[in-house]
Amino acid sequence: MSNNTYTESDIEVLTDQEHVRRRVNVYLGNNEPATYKVPIFGREGLVVKEFTFRPSVFKASGEIIDNAIDELTQFKRKDAKIIIETDPVKGFYSICDNGRGVPIGMHASGKHTPEVVFGSLRSGRNFKDDAKQTGVIGVNGVGSSCTNACSTRFDVTIYRDNKKYSQTFSEGNTCVSKPKITSVASRSTGTQVEFTLDPEVFKDVSIDPEMMRNRALEIAFNNPGVDVHYNGTAYKFKKGFEEVLSPISTEYFKFSDDNMSFYVVTDIELDGSGEQVFSWVNSSYLFDGGICNTQFINAFTDQVCRHLSPQAKKQKCEVSKEDVLKGLVVFGLMKFSDATYDSQAKTRLTGPNKRKDIQQLVEANWTLFVRKNKNWLDAVFQRAYDRYHTKSNLNAQKEHEKRIRSKVPGLLDANTKNRKDARLFIVEGLSAGRSIVEVRDPLTMGSIALGGKINNTYGCSVAQVLKMGKLQDLLAAIGITPGKPADRDTMNFGKIVVATDADPDGSAIFANLMSLFYQFWPELLDKNNPCVYRLIVPNVVAYKGTTRIHFTTRDQYEKVRNKYKGYKIEYMKGLGSMNKADWERVVSSDDFLIPVVSDGKIGETLKLLFGDDASARRRWLTNGEDIEGESE
Questions:
Q1: Which of 146, 388, 462, 577 lies at a CB distance of 3.0 to 4.6 Å from 27, suitable for a disulfide?
Q2: How far apart are CA 572 and CA 100, in angstroms?
Q3: 165-179 exposure pattern, b = at least 16 Cβ within 10 A, e = fewer
């Protein structure tokens, strides 16, 4: 038709049935193939599979199923049952419920009520917007009649008031048989609808059988106590969704009120990234999610981030939404009286807005959630910590490796080319450093003075360690980089000797250094191939003339003091008390070197000494008990 031949004859007036068939997407949703991810519950546990189908076909088949669910939602009975027999590949469905049965009397329109219900658009029982409609799926009055209009055959059988009502609609509801009503002895009630979808309308009427079987399972766990039969298999869950979830998860938490339940699962591994949120509203799965998913995820992640914020601030990092959601699976089951969707296919929920209700739901259950999920919260924080510090760590490592190749301030280096023969003395103060200079073997001995205390590095990141000036120079001198294993073949020294006083300050420096080495280079503390040593300097010296006898502890001297009558006794206050002869002896003999090796308990010891549990540390100090752990 050209634009200049537009006349009155071009205007068509379609019947309701014709309009539905030609514009099926308006009434039943998208009529083109679409692919969605669906959680499938079965023998394999839970898997997420992709299915490609026409949403309009799924909705057409679902309209009659939804009617059966609505009937049993409104009409409570202990033996509620839905029977679904189907060949979804060919588009054949038979849905039967044991509800009250559609009224079979004459309607005000002059037709029998079932013919109005199943044959006329805009007819239904759920138009009233009140609380009684909570959980009802069909509220628009076009569902079953649309399915009828899009079917080659549509048979209705109703049992009610000791009567059986039968009627057949065919050829897209253009041919309607006269109702057949007979008396029956049974007092059973219910409605059965059998139909075959028309391929001329949908082009492809097939739905994957596994997806339809899963749909029956979904109906059962969304409606506890309802007996759902699908092609001979029965599904019934007295406790609802938890009976499906508990076999596949032992780590889940339920946020719940009268109409909403969200299950946060922390121990299910699913393929894919981003939000893994699966929800059902009024028993129907939301293929595209919607406002309920977004609002719960926002409320939950915000609460987690607030909870971890003090710890994150202390560790100079930030917890993100991605940190919270990694590996997390959420299931939502909701019943709303005023649910709205983006289309008739009802793949995405657009309302109601339950943001405040969901926030209150999360907050009300938060204390219990924290108590039951401490390990998971720790893992979330660790992800945030690792992610946040990764970039700064890499930059710090690059800068440090440049420093290793440069001249290190304060380092008195050994001259040997065979670096495995070289040993580095790490001394506590500048005076001790000057003393070593006077007595060292320049070929094999190097030294570096710390010049005082060093910071506690327990739990620090690579970047944090490399911001500490004293440690920058020390690690560059050794030739090691935090975050990378120590390579004995490329290190600048084969032995690292820590020479500190035996007083509290010296012990603190030694403990901090061992904490640093254990955290980043535990291989240096290998008992079969030690690299780190502590220099045990004399605490007591007995001397007569040029003879000097060293004792590392006062107790050691007291045991043999009778042998040294006539000797003068000098009690050393530290490294600074040693004279040149003392230094010459201790640096020239391995007798004063104690290897520092891991006995498998050093982690526990360091946690006690430097960790956050101040009460445990206080108990140890109060009781005066020895710490099990590293020995020299």
A1: 146
A2: 100
A3: bbbbbbebbeebeeb
pLDDT of residue 349: 96
Q: Please report the pLDDT score of residue 616 as a whole number.
A: 66
- Spatial CB neighbours of 446, under 8 Å, sequence gap ≥ 6: 411, 412, 413, 414, 422, 423, 424, 425, 440, 477, 492, 493
Name the phi and psi angles at 575, rounded to 5. Answer: -60, -35
| E-strand stretches of 185-225 | 190-197
- Give the burial class of 456: count Cβ atoms within 10 A of its Cβ; 0-12 exposed, 13-18 middle, 19 or more buried: middle
Report the C-alpha gap between 446 and 452 in whole angstroms: 19
**Alpha carbons 77 and 44: distance in angstroms, whole number:** 33
Residue 550 C-alpha from the chain's centroid: 60
pLDDT at 458: 87
Do 474 and 450 touch, CB atoms closer than 8 A? yes
Give the pLDDT score at 625: 47
Burial level of 444, CB count in 10 A (0-12/13-18/19+)?
Answer: middle
Q: Please give the average pLDDT of every successive group of 10 residues along the chain, which has 632 residues.
A: 69 77 90 95 87 96 93 88 97 96 91 92 53 45 84 96 96 93 93 96 96 97 96 96 94 94 92 80 95 96 97 90 93 94 91 96 97 96 88 90 90 94 89 82 92 83 89 94 93 93 80 91 92 83 82 80 85 73 83 86 75 66 47 29
Side chain identity at residue 217, one-letter code = L
Q: Give the residue among 193, 194, 188 at the shortest CA–CA distance from 164.
A: 188
The answer to whether 176 and 167 have CB atoms below 8 angstroms apart is: yes
Residue with tokens 């240096």: 524
Task: Tell me the Ramachandran region of residue 536: left when phi exceeds 0, alpha when psi lies from -120 to 50, beta otherwise.
Answer: beta
Q: How far does Cα 48 stand from its chain's mean position?
A: 16
Q: Which two tokens stand for residue 545?
A: 């003339």
